[in-house]
Amino acid sequence: METFFQDLRYALRGMRRSPGFTAAAIMTLALGMGATTAIFSVIRAVLLAPLPYAEPERRVMIWSRWKDFDKTWLADGEVMDYRREIPSFESVAAWDFDGANLTGGGEPVRIGIGQVTANTFDTLGSRPQLGRGFTDDEDRPGGAPVAVLSYSVWQNRFGGDPDVLGKFIELDGVARRIVGVMPRGFQLPTDFTVAAAEPTQIWVPLQIDMKGLSHGNHGYYGAAFLKRGATAASATAELKSWTAALTARGEYPREMRFEAFAVPIENEIRGTARHALLIVFGAVGFLLLMACANVANLLLARAEGRLREISVRAAIGADKSRLARQLLTESFALAAAGGALGIVFAFAGVRIIAAHGAAGLPTMAPIRIEPSMLLFAAGLSIVTTLLFGLAPALQTLRLNLADAMREGSQNASAGRRRQTLRTALASVQMALAVMLLLGAGLMVRTLDALMRVDLGFDPKHVLTMQLQPPESAYASAGSVVTLYRSLLERVRGIPGARAAGLVRALPLATSIGDWGLVVDGYAPPPGEHAKGDWQVISDGAFEALGERLVAGRALSASDTELSQPVVLVNETLAKTYFSGRDPLGRRIKMSSQRAPWMTVVGVIKDERHNGVTAAIKEKFFVPYTQFAIQTGRPARGMTLVVRTAGEPMALAASIRAAVRGLDPNLPVANVRPMTAVVDASMATPRLTGSLLTVFAALALSLAAVGVAGVLAYLVSRRRREIGIRMALGASRAVVMRLIVRRGLTTAGIGIAAGAVAAFFLTRLLEGLLFGVAPRDPATFAVAAGALLLVALLASAVPALRAARVDPLEALRTE
């Protein structure tokens, strides 16, 4: 240890004497280690942390698929069929989710509610940590009003009271007895994957009516627990066979091409994020390799510069193994410093990602630096630096004192070999940099294409918030309409509110389903029927969202429950069902014998709803005042949208006060600007693009340092040659071209190799790209040109230094 500390003190003195080398090596290490540790922390939270279910490999999600719907919900009749008829399933559960107003015992809040079958928790493999789940009797219509709490609600609302069982909680005005508390971290699979603004935090019985089962109304999520030996593939085969039998029996029209399939729950939750994060992890791996190559270049250059010093020390009696140990100690000191700074960078990176980039990621654990991550970072930095510090150390053990002390051919040959190694490392850096730059370029172009998509509305200066009047307080459709009408009047009177309206499903924030239609004068092809995504709106909603009227008129305050039923349609519905005819004045109705005809009074420009890149489908808009006339029930859960003169969130308090003035027990939820909704819908490509862009910028910097370092070393090694050339008449321009040509050649080899590799690797990005091909020639050309420019700039300083060589001084020194 005494020898080690002696070597360490010497290493620290050496680092102080070479501040440029020390800063470059430590910063390079810190960037590589910090980025790797931060991304690995995200991957650990998303991909490596265990799911909150026992035996997750035996859990699957069940989905329906038919014409025009690749993946959609189940009907209650199908849930019961699958329980009885699918041999691979040991149990089948179903659920839905909604929001409810939690009142009593504090400020009223809106909270996500999961409506689950009694066997849902067992099917998913998670039992309450306190109390029990639901019984079959509670899961029947008219069963006892009970609830199971999430761990967070138990802690925040009841202070973790162990005697909470048997107490009551009020949801939408209904008192429910608490029978259980789920463990920390439990969520329904859809809480991870569905773009729901309200993850479920309390669960109540679904209470399917067994006497009214249907195969037509698809609105439930389904999951199953596989029997031992069964797989998702075997279950899918059985599901397809059964749905084919149902079609043959006439339960579904043959033209629907209906079938069901099973997806492993692991793939369902982590599938999309896994692809994006593995791409990012591969990119940060490239960055780490570049950092390693850079450190290797720096250590080789330092060893080359100290060759005579080491030779003299060996000549006067120093043991070669002792000298090798000294060099390894110096590498260890660099590793420790670089690792320490890398941990600081990692903490900063994790904080930024968690705060701004984690939206939409299915995290199984908090995104944070764990002690294991610190050990990972420390070990990685030490192994990396010591690995590349071995080359100078091994070179010391093989040191030939005679060759090292004289300018001989053997020494020159060794110098050429070292120069070749350093050039190869610089080329490798360029190859890795071009791959990172191409990935970043493709993602930047994807984001640009996404930002250019016409959403059909203007999200700027729009504030949104959700409300749901409970049935216990607003039993009739008239009372719901009166509440919303009064609220709109109050909100429109707030200074700074330019327009206000209500929508049932907020675009890009909620999924929207279709409803069968009857279109006057339209005869659907055999086996098909008219349908459209259904939206409920108020007057002022189009103006508040900035949606554009193509023909006719928008809704007005005169469209009441007593006036003629009206409807607006989007461009796609108008083209599909009124092709060649003016849709204005035509009639449609929601497929029901009792539903009255609605007159089309306006056509709205198509809007993006289920995703920025999702297909636009037929859509119709029913006034909230007339929705109960069509369906027999009011539109309770609505989103208030307000177009503001300035910053949207500045009006949030005033609007909350307006709601409180009407009903102090009615909470508002998910108060956010519409721009945040749009940003959340593009969270995955935005995070991937941002990280790849940062890595590409770092890669450019490291590549520039690598090329500049190689050329600086070349100038120092060829100083005598340059002096002779200039003494014989070579101009400074010729010398500069010589150095720049060498730098561009080094870069060109790396760029060519990287472009060839990227030609195959960019296909991995295909699932994340939009509006640009994985092998886009323009992106390849720009990336190659950018790196050549960087190489040219990096060559400038060594070239200028070479041009300033004094021939007489160079020859005299040699």
Q: Which features characterize this protein?
A:
814 residues; alpha+beta; 6-stranded mixed barrel; 24 helices; 51% helix
Please, could you describe this protein's structure?
- The structure is a single chain.
- This protein is of the alpha+beta class and 814 residues long.
- Helix content is 51%, strand content 17%.
- Strand 8 and strand 9 form a beta hairpin.
Major sheet strand order? 4-5-10-7-9-8
Largest sheet: 6 strands, mixed, barrel
Per DSSP E runs of 2 or more residues, the count of β-strands stands at 23
- The class by helix and strand makeup works out as alpha+beta
Q: Radius of gyration over alpha carbons?
A: 34 Å
Question: In DSSP terms, counting alpha (H) and pi (I) runs of 4 or more, how many helices?
Answer: 24
Percent of sequence in beta strands: 15-25%
Shape: elongated
Uncertain residue segments: none
Write the layout of secondary structure elements.
Elements: H1 2-17, H2 19-48, E1 59-66, E2 69-72, E3 74-75, H3 76-85, E4 89-103, E5 109-116, H4 120-124, E6 130-131, E7 146-149, H5 151-158, E8 168-171, E9 174-181, H6 189-193, E10 200-205, E11 218-226, H7 232-248, E12 259-264, H8 265-305, H9 307-315, H10 320-357, H11 371-397, H12 401-405, H13 409-452, E13 462-467, H14 477-492, E14 497-503, E15 514-519, E16 530-537, H15 541-545, E17 549-552, E18 566-570, H16 571-577, E19 587-590, E20 598-604, E21 619-623, H17 627-631, E22 638-644, H18 652-662, E23 669-673, H19 674-681, H20 683-717, H21 719-727, H22 732-761, H23 777-803, H24 807-813
Parallel strand pairs: 5-10, 7-9, 16-21, 18-20
Antiparallel strand pairs: 1-2, 1-11, 1-12, 3-11, 4-5, 4-8, 4-11, 6-9, 7-10, 8-9, 13-22, 13-23, 14-22, 15-16, 15-19, 17-20, 18-21, 19-20
